[in-house]
Amino acid sequence: MPKGMKITKHRIQVLRAFLIKEIQVQKRTSLSNQEEEINELYESIENYNAFVDQYKKVIERDKKIFQEWQAGMMIDMTDIRKSFIPFFKEFSTSSHILNLCRYQSKENYFYHHPLAVGLIAAFIGRKRNFKQEEWVGIALSGLLYERNLFNSHWEKNSTK
Fold this sequence. Notes:
The protein is mainly α. 72% of the residues lie in helices and 0% in strands.
């Protein structure tokens, strides 16, 4: 970014998308603008931390649901809806979508990818101005479809 450029929420999102953790900031003379920018930055960081915390909880919940299903238990759609819908409602924004790759690992990709598909589906549905029940249905469909694809692949490869 060029010297003297104002730090905005959008620019912070871009920096995060490129995994940039630190930047040098030039001092400004206007204290009120500084305070406003600092407040925006703190708000952005708090929002980011809330997303990461909730994302980790949802992944752990997904692991448990999947392991129960693998053990032969029936999937409780009410439980699925209770676990994932609040997350999709609160966190399907562009800044969260841009940062999804930061939380995935090769070992846990099996759990992260379906959740990412659900979030992206929720984001697209919201951007297309679908009714809430429509984009929630699309998000859950994306999540469960990807989970089913991964499970089919996993079962096929685990018998080899």
